[in-house]
Amino acid sequence: MTRRYSAFNLFREGLRGHTGWQPAWRSPDPKPAYDAVIIGGGGHGLATAYYLAKNHGMRNVAVIEKGWLGGGNTGRNTTTIRSNYFYPESVALYDFALKLYEGLGRELNYNIMFSQRGVVTVAHSEAEMEIAARIVNAMQINGTDAELLGPDAVFDKAPLLNRGPKARYPVFGGVWQGRAGVARHDAVAWGYARAADGFGVDIVQNCEVTGFIVENGRCAGVETSRGSIRAGAVGLAVAGHSGVLAAKAGFALPIQSYSLQAMVSEPVKPCLDTVVLYLGTGTYLFQSDKGEIVVGGGLDRVPSYAQRGNPPMQRTVLSGMLEMFPSFGQLKMLRQWAGNVDVVPDSSPIIGPSPLPGLFLNCGWGTGGFKSIPAGGWLMAHLIATGSHHEISRPFDLDRFATGRLVDEAAGSGIAH
Ligand SMILES: Cc1cc2nc3c(=O)[nH]c(=O)nc-3n(C[C@H](O)[C@H](O)[C@H](O)COP(=O)(O)OP(=O)(O)OC[C@H]3O[C@@H](n4cnc5c(N)ncnc54)[C@H](O)[C@@H]3O)c2cc1C
C-alpha cells in the first residue's frame, strides 16, 4: 500500500488505477485512556497532536472531534496568513507561524498550496498613513518584513482598485507584507491529520465531548458521546465553543462567540494577484487559485452560534467590495457561509493552563486563527508535554486578564483577519 505522496508514486498508482493508496488517516474507536486527549479536530487541535508526537515523542494521543475534521472554522475561513501585528509578542507568535507555514507542505508531505502573494492594507487619509508608518516601523523593529507603500505602488499591486475622482475612500498608500499570503484550508487540516495519524495518533470523529472527568481537583479525562476517556492531560482547541466547554469544566473565559461570514464569486480570469484589505470599508478580498473572488468583512456583532451569517453584514461587505473594485459589480456571488469565532477583549489568543489543573487552553483566536495554526499547535504541544510555557506563548496566558498585561492588537494594529 502506498502512503508517501510523490511524483513517482502518483505515476505508479496511475498505472494501477489508483487502487493502492492507503487511507489518509484511520478511523479508530476511542481507547479507554491516553497520555493526552485534544478536544477539537480543527487545525489547532490536529497540529497540537502532530507536534506532541513529533517534537515530544508522545504517541498515545487522541484528537476528539464532534463533527468532521476541519468542519469548524478551519474549513470555513478565508485563509489569509500574515504577521503584520504591532506588538513584539504578537509578531513573535504570528511570524513563528508564518515561518512554519513556509516549510509545512514539505514537512507534512502534503500540498497545502501556500501562496505568498502578499497582503496590502490600504490607508485612506494622511492620519491613516501615519498609523500605517507606525505599524511598518514596529514590524521592522520586531524583525518581520514590512513596507510602506505610496498610492501608485498600491495601484500597481491591484490595478483594478477604484481610483476614480468620486471614490469615497481615496487611496493614500498602504502597508505591504510580501511574505504574507493564502493557503488551502482543508489541506492544512488534512495534512496535519495524515501526519499525526502516521505517528499513531488516534483521530476520532463524530464524537462529542460532553463533560470532564475531575478527580482530586484535576482534569483526569473527558466524557464523550462514545463513553469516558481518561487522559494524563487534556487540551481544549474548540474555537467558537471554548466558552461552552469551559462552563462544563467549571470556569468562565473572557470570551464572546460571534458569527463571521464570507462569500465567493463565480470563477473569473486572473485579475487580482494579492490580498487587499481596505481600512475604510473593512472588506478584504483576493482571488482563489480557481479564479473565484473570496470576500470577507467584519463580525456580525450580535453574539451567536449561527453558522449562516446575516444579510445586513453581507450588504456591508458587498458594498465595501464595490467601493474598492467597481468592476466587480458584474460578478455573480455563488456561496456564502459563516463560522463561530471566539473573541477576547484584547483580540489576542489565550494559550496556557486553565483554572482546572490538567486542562490546557488554546482559544480566543477570533477572526485570525488560521494563520497561526502551526504556532498554536506547536506551543500547546510544548505546554502539554512539559507543563510549562514556551517563551512565545507566555504573554498569551489567561493570567494577563488578572495582571492587566494585555496584548491589545485591536488598538495596536486594528486587526482584521
Ligand atoms: C468566515 C471566516 C473567515 C476567517 N478568515 C480568517 C483568515 O483569513 N485568516 C485567519 O488567520 N483566520 C481566519 N478566520 C479565523 C480562523 O478560521 C479560526 O481562528 C481558526 O480556524 C480556529 O481554528 P481552531 O482549530 O481553533 O478551530 P476550529 O477549526 O473551529 O476547530 C474546532 C473544532 O472543535 C470541534 N468541537 C467543538 N465543540 C466540541 C465538542 N464538545 N467536542 C468535540 N469537538 C468539538 C468543532 O466541531 C471544530 O471542528 C476566519 C474565520 C471565519 C469563520
Automatic annotation (TrEMBL):
Query: One MF term in GO for this entry?
Result: sarcosine oxidase activity
The answer to whether keyword Repeat applies is: no
Indicate where this protein is primarily found: cytoplasm
Provide a GO CC annotation, any one. cytoplasm
Q: Where does it live in the cell?
A: Cytoplasm
Give the protein's cofactors. FAD; FMN
UniProt keyword annotations, A-Z: Cytoplasm, FAD, Flavoprotein, FMN, Nucleotide-binding, Oxidoreductase
Keyword field contains Oxidoreductase: yes
Which reaction is catalysed here?
Answer: sarcosine + (6S)-5,6,7,8-tetrahydrofolate + O2 = (6R)-5,10-methylene-5,6,7,8-tetrahydrofolate + glycine + H2O2; sarcosine + O2 + H2O = formaldehyde + glycine + H2O2
Q: Which InterPro entries does the record cross-reference, listed alphabetically?
A: FAD-dep_OxRdtase, FAD/NAD-bd_sf, Rhodanese-like_dom, SoxB
According to the entry, every stretch annotated as the Rhodanese domain falls at 37-80
The EC number(s) attached to this protein equal: 1.5.3.24
Please give the biological process terms from Gene Ontology that the record holds.
Answer: tetrahydrofolate metabolic process
Any one Pfam family match given in the protein's UniProt record, by short name:
DAO
Family recorded in the similarity comment: Belongs to the SoxB family.
This protein is called what? Sarcosine oxidase subunit beta
- State the organism of origin: Aquibium oceanicum
